[in-house]
Amino acid sequence: MSEIEKNKEIGTVLAEKEPQRNGNIFESNIRKSYLFQLFAGFHLISGVLLPFFLLWGKITFIEIMLLQSYFTIMIVLFEIPCGAISDYISRRFSLFLGGLATAFAALIYSSTPNIFIFIIGETVFALGFSLISGTNDALIFDTLRKMEREQDMSKIMARNRSFFLAGIAISAPIGSLIPLFFPINFVMAFMFFPFIIAAIIAITLKEPNHDLERESLNYLTVVKSGFRELKKNKTLRILALDFVIIDVLVFLLIWTYQLYLDSLYVPLMFFGFVAASMTLTQILFFNLVPKLQKRFKNKKIFLMIYTLIPGIAYILIAFINFTLIGILLILIIVGVGFSRNIIFISGINKNIEEENRATVLSTISMIRSLIITILYPVVGLLVMWNLRYTFIILGISIIIIALISRVKNEHL
Asked: Which helix or strand (DSSP H or E) is residue 257 part of?
């Protein structure tokens, strides 16, 4: 073999080994991302959220809802500048700052029962969540590109989401037990530790973004582009609105179910176990929906039935005073209501042009946030009037939307 041939052979071997070597460098990012999501999902307060505000914070339910409207607005405002930190500085730095911000937000929130302190806490929480939101997904995508494993994106993202939900499922029961030994504000304060651990994990990530191409986009251009696509595409508009409105109506149960449990005299220590069950139910139904959908030739009928279920459950829960049945109805609303989104994934994505996908999906997410911002205080007033009637109104709203839906079988 000549020297030239030897050099060619060596070059070929090195070329073949380079992706594997590069893959080994970035492989740990995937595992660390799972751990980051696990600790970022350690929302100890989720099991005793309303008692924290009502009993310790001494604020009314309408004030809680106004705080959440403010939080949602801040998320929208922070989204673009925080995305710029991720894109133009570092994915790792953005995740680190996000973990750090949420950790200190927990300390701020638990320091003094004062609504102005809560506003500061919500602002810092919104900053932290905005720094993390989307960045973790981008980190995984960039990492898989470096490893030449883009085809694994869906599988890795599903696992990533499962680790976040697992964090909630593990932490919620722990959070509901903490008030047995400490004042309830300690539940929020103790969230500092898992969030700091998440920030430390972020520091150890290998930055995959430095030498990837970046595209500079103007915020208003992005917004206009997304709304323009929705305006011109009637099918996409029908799907997006149907998907978003029902999702928001189901989401409102997250802020009302603990009041319902309290009305049934369920002890505070069990609230977290209900919250954990809600998370596990979501995981169960997320995996069940694709199998159920295959059994229906007419997807429109399946969607209508699947939408009616949480609507009917909302109405039933208004008349139920038996604890176990009430909790079962809560699980049905959350499990069926949130997993309904899967039915729309294919239809929405096939109606979006490839180059506009991220923009349109971000616009749909923004519309959802705006609807939630408007409905928070409305539901706050309704709950202060009558919780049971609020459930009936939410249930009837879902049923009406299910029956008048303009979504067609071919859209899905």
From this structure: helix 257-263
Report the C-alpha gap between 129 and 105 in whole angstroms: 11
Tokens (6 digits) for 33 = 């991302």
The dihedral built from the CA positions of residue 202, 203, 204 and 208, taken in this order, carries a sign that is positive
| Dist CA 121 CA 119 (whole Å) | 5
Q: What's the chain's length in residues?
A: 412
Cα–Cα distance, 381 to 403 (Å, whole number): 27
Instruction: Name residues whose C-beta falls within 8 Å of residue 317's C-beta, 6 or more positions apart in sequence.
Output: 260, 326, 329, 330, 333, 391
pTM of the model: 0.79
Is the distance from CB of 102 to CB of 129 less than 8 angstroms? Answer: yes
Domains of the chain are 1-216 (1.20.1250.20), 218-412 (1.20.1250)
The per-residue DSSP string of 132-177 comes to HTTHHHHHHHHHHHHTT-GGGHHHHHHHHHHHHHHHHHHHHHHHHH
Q: How far is CA 238 from CA 84, 86, 233, 343, in A?
A: 31, 32, 9, 14
Distance of CA 302 to the CA centre of its chain: 25
Residuewise pLDDT in 10s, the chain (412 residues): 444 444 444 344 433 444 444 446 677 888 888 899 899 999 999 989 999 999 999 999 999 999 999 999 998 888 767 766 766 777 788 889 999 999 999 999 999 999 999 999 999 999 998 888 767 777 777 777 777 676 666 677 767 778 888 899 999 999 999 999 999 999 999 999 999 999 999 998 887 755 544 444 555 666 677 777 778 888 888 888 888 999 999 999 999 999 999 999 999 899 999 999 998 898 888 878 878 877 877 888 888 999 999 999 999 999 999 999 999 999 999 999 988 887 877 677 677 765 556 567 767 877 888 899 999 999 999 999 999 999 999 999 999 999 998 888 766 6
Say how far apart CA 122 and CA 75 lie, in whole Å.
10
Give dist(CA 45, CA 193) in Å, integer: 13
